[in-house]
Amino acid sequence: MDVMNPPTHSHVNSKTLYRWQRTSLERHLHALVPQWDKRRLEITTEVLGANASFVNYVRHHRLLDPCTGQPVEIVEKSIRKMAFIGSQEARFHRATGMLVGSTHFQYPACLGVIETPWESLIFTEFVCGKPPRMHAISKQLAYGIAELETLSHDYLQSQPLAKAPLYWSMDFFRPWFLLRPRFNFVRCLPALEELGIQDERFGGLAERFKAFVPLTQKMAAKARHSPRCISHMDYLRKNLFVDQGQLHLIDWSEVKVGRLGFDGGAYLGSLFRRKEMKVFLAAQAEFIDTYRTALPGRFNIEQALENLRYVFLLTALFHCLRPETIGEYRDRDRMALLREKYAYLLGLIEGL
């Protein structure tokens, strides 16, 4: 077995090991790669940035394979547990064979997951490449997301009933996900009311944005009963790399059992937050046109697009209404652009 190509989502199987006491990194690697057992490992480590909830650290390890002398680069992520409950990211990596056959996205090979009572340790291949311009890869992402949704939907459908509680706990519509700030734009409206007092261009907008509450609730009810799939939910530049023409998707810290269309909404919501309207609108049109073609005909494309709009609204409303965003636009003297984005969002109410 190639060290950096162990069985994973894109191969055949994955490893999960359980430990009841703390031990060294070297011993973890010996357990995950049996052919290294009892061989000395010379490891250099770099700490990588991490801002996801419950992540203790992310470390980049470099070493020479003691059997072949070839360089090996591994990422180790530690995710702390609450009440001994493992993270959804660890559960995703432990799901064997989910994304077999992927061609539009490449995923880092996973050496394995080590579970302890207090943390999940995930060991994956280090991916090196160039971060893409997010608006320029809308077509590639549409193909990749449609493929990811199709493969993971079929996988979830094939799982035995005994695994239902596992995927139920990862479902997007569980309270522990829905109560998170990023899905609750209403808490940002007081700041918008205050802005309206200071700047007449924003006067009365907070009241108008309240109309999205019943609208998103209605959209959520429909989405809940549509086909399930795995949703990455974090399409940011730091999580995508282009290497030799291949698009690599990393970091599953936000992964959930979502619905068809959710990932497209997450991508477009992130793009809306960061780009000028002209750039966003062009990328959105290309993404949706491609996604319509890429999603297999056995799925209801209109429902998938409705789901896309639902997650887009949750994401865009929160990130554009929160006080931190208002402060950023004010500091950069871009309040006219922020007002333009508010007008676009409010205009969607009529269309939906």
Summarize the structure.
By secondary structure, this protein is α+β, with helices and mostly antiparallel strands.
Termini separation (Å)? 52 Å
Instruction: Report the uncertain regions.
Output: 4-13
| Largest sheet entry | 6 strands, mixed
User: Compute the gyration radius: what is it?
Assistant: 22 Å
Q: Any guess at the CATH architecture of the largest domain? A: Alpha-Beta Complex
- Helix count equals 13
Beta-strand content: 15-25%
Which helices and strands occur, and which strands form pairs?
Elements lengths: L15 E3 L6 H8 L11 E5 L6 E10 L6 E10 L7 H7 L15 E6 L3 E7 L12 H21 L5 H6 L5 H4 L10 H10 L6 H5 L2 H13 L3 E4 L8 E4 L2 E4 L6 E4 L2 H13 L2 H18 L6 H21 L1 H9 L3 H17 L1
Parallel strand pairs: 1-5
Antiparallel strand pairs: 2-3, 3-4, 4-6, 5-6, 7-10, 8-9
Please characterize this protein's 3D structure.
The protein has 13 helices and 10 strands. It is α+β, with helices and mostly antiparallel strands. The chain folds into 2 domains: 110 residues, Phosphorylase Kinase, domain 1, CATH 3.30.200; 218 residues, Aminoglycoside 3'-phosphotransferase, Chain: A, domain 2. Helix 8 runs antiparallel to helix 11 and helix 11 packs antiparallel against helix 13. About 3% of the residues have low confidence.
